[in-house]
């Protein structure tokens, strides 16, 4: 007869075996992990032929490309070897249930000089073309940005054949002026001068993309610049649009494409011309002085370098750009990150529970240039808002400190946070009374761009909405003296940045945070604070978990 200690030992052994089996099942079912180890430094760069101080990641400018597949876990260890705090944010990556990892100051403590932080991201239910960038101070004007590719899982059909190659093109305006000098200009209350150049993958000219005659290639184009809309075109070649910020689109062919600040597009091109080199041209839009940069599309059997005139593009034609934007629509029958068709979610049949009207403005506050949304010019708190919310620290921000619609108040400073209910379905109208093209981004979400037009939005404007196949994306443009309307399902709990992508305006207050709140407090709705969370401000000295 077995004694009691032996019975206990066998029972414990069996229990441990069950735990091990469950653990193995869990690991086997878990999504893949990809690991990145990055060191951020200052270094000498020469994009315009003269030495500048740039921000390098692992010695690279632009930074390394992130290659991933839907649902991958990305473990990105970032060591900050700059002389000041640093953060990276992930433009278009939705951070499902996990705004702690968003990498903007409202959610995440900066990485102190000489220290590191490991981001844990999951590209949950996402595909498409995105980018990362430094979100603090005016670091974005010094580099530190790079491309993000999220491919579909192997069993999910993609609505076009596999291309022969997949190239990322990071385009953007560029200053020869040091980023700290630019920041000082803004801190003193002045406006910035116009940028001096446009870069394509860190160079104004000479970047080469090699193709084989007769084959088709995918180009992922992201505007990582600071303020300018850019027009993209390729000499002698048409471009078939296939994806916009994670949405497969109706495959419309364009001769050139407007890419506004913060936006990303995927196009297919076929090397179906005579074997030579062709210009890839990128130029500013809606500017008095047109700045143009070029790269080379090089046929592998080419015997002739680029020559002749650079192909021209549109310059100040607003209506042309508006009509192109309206032509970009969702491919309803194509699969997205999941096998079900993108059109299976009928956003146009859902009742809107709230309308939010956001009006941008520019004015002087205390004799310094500021920018605002609904009269509120955002000022950062001494503690990231998400941490203050988690630890219930009072006096950092107040929910409701920005109204749902414009007020007649003069511009004023505040740490503006808008409250919103989890699972609400909202209509947001961006109203632009100014003479510039604006670009707006919402972290944590994609939204349907249901309408845009000139003039002032009214309830009757809803008669123009596209309620069937509007494109879903995370960054939208608003044309001068015009409006843009979006629908958004608030299905992602967290503290989310709503900002102008015109970076000087963002820095001087044209942003706020949307607190999407669930009273349940379940991990089904939001992950707990990361164990490795950096704690700063009034959260310093507390325990994460």
UniProtKB/TrEMBL annotation:
Identify the Gene3D superfamilies for this entry.
Cupredoxins - blue copper proteins (2.60.40.420)
Q: Which residues cross the membrane?
A: none
UniProt protein name: L-ascorbate oxidase
- Which taxonomic lineage does the organism of this UniProt entry have? Eukaryota, Viridiplantae, Streptophyta, Embryophyta, Tracheophyta
Which family is it part of?
A: Belongs to the multicopper oxidase family.
**PANTHER family, alphabetically?**
MULTI-COPPER OXIDASE, MULTI-COPPER OXIDASE TYPE I FAMILY PROTEIN-RELATED
Q: Which residues form the signal peptide?
A: 1-29
List, for all copies, the residue spans of the domain called Plastocyanin-like.
Answer: 40-153, 167-302, 382-519
Which SUPFAM superfamilies does the record cross-reference, listed alphabetically?
A: Cupredoxins
Cite a single GO MF annotation: oxidoreductase activity
UniProtKB keywords = Glycoprotein, Signal
Q: Which Pfam families match?
A: Cu-oxidase, Cu-oxidase_2, Cu-oxidase_3
């Amino acid at each position: 007869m077995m004694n009691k200690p032996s019975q206990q030992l066998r029972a414990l052994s069996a229990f441990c075996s069950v735990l091990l089996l469950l653990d193995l099942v869990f690991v086997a079912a878990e999504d893949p992990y990809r690991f990145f180890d990055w060191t951020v430094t200052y270094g000498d760069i020469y994009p315009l032929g003269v030495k500048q101080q740039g921000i390098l990641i692992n010695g690279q400018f632009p930074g390394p490309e992130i290659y991933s597949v839907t649902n991958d876990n990305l473990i990105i260890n970032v060591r900050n070897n700059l002389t000041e705090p640093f953060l990276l944010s992930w433009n278009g990556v939705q951070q499902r249930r996990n705004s702690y990892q968003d990498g903007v100051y409202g959610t995440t403590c900066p990485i102190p000089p000489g220290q590191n932080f490991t981001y844990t991201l999951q590209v949950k239910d996402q595909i498409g073309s995105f980018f990362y960038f430094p979100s603090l101070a005016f670091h974005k004007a010094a580099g530190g940005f790079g491309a993000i590719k999220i491919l579909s899982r192997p069993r999910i059909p993609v609505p076009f054949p596999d291309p022969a190659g997949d190239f990322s093109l990071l385009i953007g305006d560029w200053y020869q002026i040091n980023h700290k000098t630019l920041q000082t200009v803004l801190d003193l209350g002045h406006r910035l001068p116009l940028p001096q150049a446009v870069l394509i993958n860190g160079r104004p000219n000479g970047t080469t993309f090699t193709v084989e005659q007769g084959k088709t290639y995918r180009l992922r184009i992201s505007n990582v610049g600071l303020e300018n809309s850019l027009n993209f075109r390729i000499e002698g070649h048409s471009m078939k649009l296939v994806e916009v910020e994670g949405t497969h689109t109706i495959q419309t062919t364009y001769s050139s494409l407007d890419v506004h600040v913060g936006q990303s597009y995927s196009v297919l091109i076929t090397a179906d011309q005579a074997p030579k080199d062709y210009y890839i041209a990128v130029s500013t839009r809606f500017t008095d002085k047109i700045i143009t940069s070029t790269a080379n599309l090089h046929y592998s059997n080419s015997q002739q370098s680029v020559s002749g005139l650079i192909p021209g593009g549109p310059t100040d034609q607003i209506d042309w750009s508006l009509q192109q934007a309206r032509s970009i629509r969702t491919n309803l029958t194509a699969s997205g990150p999941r096998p079900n068709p993108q059109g299976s979610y009928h956003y146009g049949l859902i009742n809107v529970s709230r309308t939010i009207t956001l009006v941008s403005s520019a004015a002087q506050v205390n004799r310094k240039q500021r920018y605002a949304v609904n009269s509120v010019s955002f000022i950062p708190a001494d503690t990231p808002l998400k941490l203050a919310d988690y630890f219930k620290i009072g006096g950092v921000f107040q929910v409701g400190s920005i109204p749902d619609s414009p007020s007649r108040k003069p511009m004023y400073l505040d740490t503006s946070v808008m409250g919103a209910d989890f699972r609400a379905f909202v209509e947001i109208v961006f109203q632009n009374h100014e003479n510039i093209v604006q670009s707006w981004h919402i972290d944590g979400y994609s939204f349907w761009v249901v309408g845009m037009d000139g003039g002032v939005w009214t309830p009757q404007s809803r008669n123009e909405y596209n309620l069937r196949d509007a494109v879903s994306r995370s960054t939208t443009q608003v044309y001068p003296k015009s409006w843009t309307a979006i629908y958004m399902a608030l299905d992602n709990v967290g503290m989310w940045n709503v900002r102008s992508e015109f970076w000087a305006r963002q820095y001087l207050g044209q942003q706020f945070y949307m607190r999407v709140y669930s009273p349940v407090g379940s991990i089904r709705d939001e992950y707990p604070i990361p164990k490795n969370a950096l704690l700063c401000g009034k959260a310093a000295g507390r325990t994460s978990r």
